[in-house]
Every structure is written in C-alpha cells, then in structure tokens.
Amino acid sequence: MYVGIDVGTSMVKAAAFDATGRELAVASRPLDLSLHGGVVEQDMEEVYGAVVAVLGEVTERVPGPVELAGLTGQGDGVWLVDAEGRPVRAAASWMDGRAHELVDRWLADGTFEAVFRRTGSAMFPGCPGPLLAWLDRHEPKALDTAKAALYCKDVVFQRLTGAGPTTDVSDASMPFLDPQTRAYDDGVVELLGLAHRRGLLAPVSDPVATAGARGEGLPSGTRIANGPYDLPACALGAGVTSPGDGLLIVGTCLASLVATTELDLTGEPAGLYISTDRPGHWLRAMPAMVGTAALDWVLSTTGVRHDEVDGLLAATPPGANGVGVLPYFAPSGERAPFVEPRLRAELTGLCLESTRGDLVRATCEGIGYAARHCLEAAGLTGNLAVCGGGTRSSAWMRLLADVLGRPLRVVEGEVGARGAVLAAAERHGVALDTAAWTRPTAVVEPDPGRTAFYTRGYEEHLDRLAQARARGRARQ
Question: Is residue 476 scored above 70 in pLDDT?
Fold first, then answer.
C-alpha cells in the first residue's frame, strides 16, 4: 500500500491507497489552535503526536507492507526547532496576525513591492518573512536558540526520519525563493532585515528530500518523501498540471491555483508563484484567508448545524433576499488577490425579516465571489477542479458553479494525501496511473440563468470590496 500524510491546520490525516489510487483507509485527529489578540499558535508536540497516532491507526487497519509514504502539510508560519527537531517555542501559524504592523510598514515604504518583483511572493502577516522579523524584534532569544525555522511538514519529516532540517521548493517559495534559480534570494533576506538570521533558513532540497522512517507510526525503513506542501500537493492529487488549468480548494482557507509556465512579476503584488518539482513550471496561487472558517463562524453564531446547510441553500433564493456578506473574517485581514491586513468582514442588507438561511446563503455567495476574484487574478483559462471540505455540500457546489460560471470537476477524498503519494512515487521512480488516481468524482454544470444573475452580483461585490478596502486604509 501507499500512505499519504496530510498535516493540516485543524486536522491531521493519513490515508492508505492501493496501486490504482483506491482509498483503503483514512485516519484523522483534530488539532488545537491557540488564538488570542491576533496571535495564532500550535503545539508542535501535539501535532507530531497526532501524526504518529494516525499513521499507527491506518497501518494497523490495512495489513501489508508500505511501499512508500508521501508527506504534505500546511504552509507558511514559523516552526522553530533545535538541532534534534524539537520545538524551541510554539509554532506561529500561517493565520497569525501579530506582524501586521511590519507588513503595513513594508507596504508603505516599498519593501513589500520590491520583494514581490524579485520572488513573486506577496507577503502577509503569517508568512515567514514578517514573522521572523517580528520574532527578531520581540523574541530574539527564541531565534538564538533555534537551529532552523522550518515549515510544518519539515518538522514532521525530521522527527519521523531523523534527517537534518530541510525544506522543498514549494514551501520555500514564500517569501525568500527566487522562482527562476530555485535558490534563496539573499537580497530579499537583506530587504527584510534578516541577514543575521540567514542561517535559520533550512537547506532547500530540489528534488524533495527522501529518507527512511525510524519506526514511529510507520515501519522502520519505510521510504518517505518530504513534500510538496498542501496547496501544490492538492493540485497534483486533482490532476492540475497543464498550463491554464486550475484548482479551487474550499477549505479553512480558499486557495485558488492555476498551472503556468509564464512568470509575470508585474501588476498588483498579490499571491505567490509556487515552484513545483518541474523547473519552469509554477502554480500561480491566490491563497485567500477567507474560506470555510468564515462559514463555520456564521453557522456557530446562528446555531445552524452543518447538516442543515444544503436545505437552507435550497430554500433561499439567489441573492439571499438582499443580504450580502464580504467574508473577510480572518484577524490578519486578506492576502489574495490583494493584501489588506486591516480588512474585516461586513454584513449588509440585514433586517428583522432576514433569516438564518439568508445569512448562510449570503456567506456562501460571498465566498464564491472571493473565489472568482482569485481565479481571475491567477489567470484561469482551462478546466477547473475543486476539492476540500466544502465539496461535501452538494448545494454549495451547485452555487459555486453558478457563481464561477463554469463546470466544476469535483475531486473528493484525501486529495492532498493523494498528491503527496504521487509526488513520492515520482521521486522514487514508481510508476502509477496518474489519470486513475486523479479522476473526478463528479462534474457540476452551471445554470446559465443563475450565472447571469451572479455575474451582476460579482460586479456589486467588487464595488463593495473597493469601498471596504478604502475604509480599512483610512483607519491606518
């Protein structure tokens, strides 16, 4: 069997597959997030313990040797470890907002744009550049103690295998990697005032690093490949590799990815170019902070259960009876297809006659508009696949197809883990039928009438967004 490990933000999963790509078993464990005053952190020992637990469960449920394992996980953030891979402090999550003042300053003085023009990375508060600079100012002893500033999957890889600290080109893409040379741009490190911390950046393994398991969770000697991180892993798992084709991940964050062979560092700095295992091939990524977390907040606040969402969407008309939602609920603002650390959610059109269904539908529509904005900015011209937790709602998928005005290739299951296995197989020269592994579960066609309605709604969304961005800048 083949095992994929996906270390997410709120959940760790391990999935076992046979040689045809059929899922044999999935095990999962929830993860805690510590949120307070814009600071978002995770306990690295809890994360690693969850990884070992799910691996033990899935290999116990599916007897037989493990051919190989692929590892992926959440990107960005800062995971400081010592020489043994042990945590120096809690991991700072990609959702963390404490460095927003640094990003504001870099936006104002031109540093932000200068970094984008060199690497194609539009920094946001939760990416390693701002977080490392913040820690350098406020917790220098933590950086003095650390051996490396890693990404999530890299910490797990080091602990599972005993290998030295390393990362891959996908994780390193934000914000220090030169997308053409596939090496760190020391000029960017200097721009961010981190030249004296350059030694904390992990060596970039290109292609991805491999090593044998030490026996925790996986049988000793099992071959493990470290990467890519979750966004490009999902692209692989959904079969998005041809230029112009795209993937929308409807998860905690709303990630829009488009495969490309063109590197364009002009235009409004936003998103990033993720380097892939193929030189000269990138994913133009617009990983918005908005996503299912916005809907979860609305459901929790209104007392609506997840299993009620489809019924409410079906019973509420397009336009949600005039209720509108700008779904930017993240404490660190938004990062794609623009960067506004102070942007916040807005609800409009509410009155005493508004229902829970109106609010739920308006939120789903707002997330759909945000997805359309990101996909247009990323340059989508071909087929569109969609995956993530949001695909479990068939009504929301129909709504998304209408808002986006194009068919959706729905890919269900553990898409990130699937992509991690495909990457590992490629790295080890193991031939797998990629078409069979990435076949869509369903194709959802848009309704022309509703698409026309939502095209007008999208223009109104962009107008409201422009006004909200202006108000946010005025508050600075």
Answer: no
